[in-house]
Amino acid sequence: MPVPSPDCENYLRRHLANPFLVLELAPKAGRSELERQGAKLLAMLAAGLAAAGTYATPLGPRERTAEMVREALAELRDPARRLVHEWWAHGLAGRIPTPRRRFPPPPE
Amino acid sequence: MVLYFPIGPIIGLLVYMLSRGLARSKAETGATVPTHRATQSRISIGHLVLFGVFYLPLATIPVMVVAEQTKSSWPGLLSFAAAIFAICMGPRWLAWRVLGPWGLPAVGRAVLWLAPSFTLSTFRGNLELFSAAFGGAPKPQRWAAGPWFLFARALRGDREGDPERMEALLELLRDLSSWRLPWRLRGQGFELLAWPALQAGDWGEALRRLAHGRGRGVRLLRRVALAHTAGVASPFLLWLAWLLAPERRRTRPLVLAVVDPERTAATIPPPLAHALQEEDAATDGVWLRHLKLLAEAAEGRPVRSSDIEAVAEDWEETLKKAGRMRLLSRGAELEVPKVQAVVAGLRPTLRAELEAVAESVDGPWPEPQRRNGLAAEVCRRRRDRLFAAVQVEVDPFLGRNGFQRKLEDPLAELERWLQFRRDLRRLLEAAGENALPTSWYGGLRFAACNWPVFLLQAYGLDAHWACRQMFRWSEAQARRMGDQEIAKLSHGNLRQVRSFLA
Questions:
Q1: pLDDT for residue B444
Q2: pTM of the predicted model as reported, rounded to 2 decimal places
Q3: Of A66, B127, B188, B283, which has fewest CB within 10 angstroms of its CB?
Q4: B-chain residues within 8 Å CB-CB of A80?
C-alpha cells in the first residue's frame, strides 16, 4: 500500500488553483474582464460573502481566498504562464460540475 | 504441605530469571564498530519482587481456605493455579478490555503499572501501547526496537497523519508469523490497528491490517469488513462471532450496520469513494484523468500502472503536431516570448508529475511497448529511483573505514530497515527477480548481514528483537541467492540471539 504523496498533493493543489477556475471565467476571457472579475471577487471576499468563499473544480468545490484571487491575476499577467493555464483550463472545460450562478456576470 | 509443590518451582524460576536476566549479546561481522557493552537487564526486577512478596502470598490465601475444607490436595492445587492465572491475566484484561475502551486511560495505566510483568519490554510495551491506543503522552527515553513500540508508533503515526510507520509495521508482518508476537499484540494489537480504518469506513484497508491477526476480536472485525467488501455475510455467524468476541458494546454498531444497514445508515460512515471511477475514465479527457491520478496518489491510494501508461500515451497524442501548433499560434496571439520553449517545457513537467504518481504503483510494472514513449520514461525513472533508494542504505556498509553512518535510536533503525526492505521488494516487483542478484552482489549482502550486527553491538538488548528479525531475513535472502557464506553467518548470529536468556 503506498503512502500519501506530498508531491502529488502539491501538483494537484497547483492545478486546481488554475486562475481560470479560481476566477470562474472562460479561458478566452480578455484582460479587462479578468481584472473586473478579480476586483469583484476581492470585494465580495472582503465583505465576507459566503458565495465567494468557494469555487468549483472538476474534483469538487475548493476554498477561495483573497490571496488566491490576487495570485491568479498576477499569473495571468504573464503571457507564458497564461498560455499554460489556458491550455489546462481548455482541457478541463466541460468537466467541471455546473455551479449554480451565485453572483451576476460582470458588466460589459 | 500442599503449597510446597507449586511454590518451590516458582521461587526457583524467579531466582533463575534474576540470575540469568543480566545478559550480553554478541554477533559476528567482518567490520568493527564502537560497541556498547554495558550490562543490561531485561528482567523487571521491581515486578519480580512485587510478585514474590505480594502476589504469590495473595495466591496462597484461597489455597489455605480450600485446604482447610478438603482432605485431598488437588482442590488446593487447582485453586492455586486459578489464583495465579487471575493475578497474571486479570489486571491486564481489566485495563485493555474495560478501562481503556470505556475512556479511563489514567486508571488503566495505573492498573497496568501494577500488573505482574516479568520482562521490562512487556511492562514498558504494555504501558506505551495503551497510551498510544487510549490516550497519553509517549514516555520512553529510548525507543527499544521491539514489537510493542513498533505497534505503538504505528498507531500514533496513523493518528497524526504519518502513514510511513504503519506501512513499516505492515511490511514486517508480511512474513512474520503472528505467533512470534506477544500474545496481546496477536489479537488486540491488530484490532487497534484496524479500528481507525473501520471508523473511516475504509473496509479494504481494515482487512489489510487485520490479515495476520488472531483471536476472537480479529475474527469478528475481519468478518464485518468482509461483509462490506465482498457483500457476503451470514447474520447468524456474524452474531455468533460478536457473541464470542470481546468489547461487544463497541462492536455492536458494526454488526448492526451489516445485518440491518437501513437502521444504522447514519451512524456508520459510507465506504470511501475512489477518485478514479472506471466508467468515467473513458469519457474524461486526459487533463481530468491526470488530475484524478494525482488525487489518488496524494491520498495514498494504489495507482495502476496501466492507468499511468494510458494517460502518458494520451499526453503524447495531445502534444503531437496539431496540438503543439495550436499552442504555438495561441502563444503568438498572446505575444509569449520564447513560446517554443514554453510549449517544449510541457512534456518534462507532465513527466515529473507522472513520476510522482508512479511512486504509488504497488506491484509489477512490465516495460511499456514503446521504448521511447513517455510511459517508458516514467517506468524507467521509477526503477532508477527504487534502485537508488536501496543503494542509499547499502552504501554505508561498503566503506573501507567501517560503517559510515550514525545510527539512530533502535526503533528508528528498525523502521528504516523495514523501509529498505519495502523499497527492495518494490524494486524486485518493478524490475523482476533478475534485479536481486545485481543488488545482492552489488553490496546488498553486506548490508543485509551487517546491519543487525552493528545495531546489536551499539544497542544490545534494546535492539535484540529487531536483530532477530533482521538476521532471519538476511538468512532467507542469502539462501534465495545461494550465498552460503552470508547464510551461514546470519544463521550463526541468529542462533546466538535467539535464546531468551542467552
A1: 92
A2: 0.77
A3: B283
A4: 331, 336-339, 342
